[in-house]
Amino acid sequence: MNDKLIIFDTTLRDGEQSPGASMTRDEKLRIARQLERMRVDVIEAGFAAASNGDFESVRAIAEAIKTSTVCSLARANENDIRRAGEAIRPAARGRIHTFIATSPIHMEKKLRMTPDQVVEQAVKAIGWAKAYTDDIEFSAEDAGRSEIDFLCRIFEAVIDAGATTINVPDTVGYNVPEQFAATIATLIERVPNSDKVVWSVHCHNDLGLAVANSLAAVRAGARQVECTINGLGERAGNAALEEVVMAVHTRRDVFQCDTGIDTTQIVPASKLVSGVTGFPVQPNKAIVGANAFAHESGIHQDGVLKHRETYEIMRAEDVGWGANKLVLGKHSGRNAFRSRLQELGIVIESEDHLNHAFARFKELADKKHEIFDEDLHALMSDEATTPELEHYRLVSSRFHSETGEKPRAELTLAVGGQEIRSAAEGSGPVDAAFKAIENVAQSGSELLLYSVNAITTGTDAQGEVTVRLALAGKVVNGQGADTDIIVASAKAYLNALNKLHSKRERLNPQV
């Protein structure tokens, strides 16, 4: 049980690639600080070469995080690795994670390189990375569909060149547990100097097997798992951090290792990521779903009341359920407000920022008697939108909904600093609000998703609305929160329009 399983979190990189899940720099910082509180070993902060915004996000996280290793992804080319190296330079512990595809279909169709050229490029990449750090991870993209002899060859070459972690990704979620475990065991056995590196896996969830494949690999000798909070990620997502961690923690009789994760921080991390991305967690989701520790069956309830372990293999409080207690109310002062934000890892940039946020908090406290941590996260997510990025803003609103009458919305919007009034009718007040906004914006976007979730319990709870819009191949999520669901809906729609308006460019390498 002395064996350490390294948890490598890629929520901020691979998780962000989920359509509509792009995060701002401030949001990434908040999540990174929560991951550090959870004692995640490695935080993959982004792909520094993708854009200037990604570079600045990685660098900001490298400056802020003190105990976790901060990592940047880089393709196996000199420019990517130089950008990654510069981005992680301020980190107390920095890692460069470089990759190149190794499956026949990827080498032939995507890279258009021969196997010899791929090996040569991988070795060069390790050499470039060594100029910045001794902590170098190499991934063989699409290893799950690669030939075992070629994997042995390229891994031997990069280990000789100086790689310290070897990652074996199932990039397209093609493997099954027994097969994947056999692949890991074979590689560890056949690759020279395999005992000199940490073996890692990164499994995608296309067949719903990401966690199962990851755990099978751990039993076969892998000692790093790459995963994301809530299993976030493109397509069907990645292995869920909370499931991997709690499986290893709960079944110590099976896994000859353990993590250093503070499991009580799992639920707060899940709620933060869900709130920031606008991707709600399904109620029956393992560990972090609302029903994960709920019992409705009379037989189950009777058993749990008599002895908890009859139907519960974990304690809800061990993963953080019940930890988000009432923190503030309408009589709370500025110092209490500031202190709680700091405890939640929310950074206040200036006194003006604090004053504005505190005023918003007081407005919310007048509407809502009890303020919970989730309310503060939602409030500060709204607050994080800077004026220069807020092309569209809701100034005032009026809604009319009456039985037998057509619902109507009357809005005043600030568009580029100029106030414009708009009104529209719809099938409901939310539909009317969206039509009134579109009368002004004329965005031409397609509404892909409209979702409402209560942030906390009670009839005075804030509603958190997620709106997903698509325009010319770009997909964005907008979030808005308010005790009035229609106002929250209008805010969410405007938030999405602001993201479309920003025209942020991204590159999304998939590993």
Task: Give the SSE map.
Elements: E1 6-9, H1 25-37, E2 42-46, H2 52-64, E3 69-75, H3 78-88, E4 94-101, H4 104-111, H5 115-129, E5 136-141, H6 148-161, E6 165-170, H7 177-190, E7 198-203, H8 210-219, E8 224-227, H9 241-250, H10 266-277, H11 298-306, H12 334-343, H13 351-367, H14 373-383, E9 392-400, E10 408-415, E11 418-425, H15 429-441, E12 446-454, E13 463-471, E14 474-482, H16 485-502
Parallel strand pairs: 1-2, 1-8, 2-3, 3-4, 4-5, 5-6, 6-7, 7-8
Antiparallel strand pairs: 9-10, 10-11, 12-13, 13-14
Helix pairs in contact: 1-2, 1-10, 2-3, 3-5, 5-6, 7-8, 10-14, 13-14, 15-16
Q: Tally of extended strands? A: 14
Q: Helix and strand succession?
A: EHEHEHEHHEHEHEHEHHHHHHEEEHEEEH
Q: How does the major sheet shape up?
A: 8 strands, parallel, barrel
Low-confidence stretches: none
Radius of gyration: 24 Å
Gap between N and C termini, in Å?
Answer: 30 Å
**Residues in helix, %:** 25-40%
Name the average pLDDT. Answer: 89
The largest sheet has its strands arranged as 1-2-3-4-5-6-7-8
Outline: globular
Category from helices, strands and their pairing: alpha/beta
Count of helical stretches: 16
Strand content: 15-25%
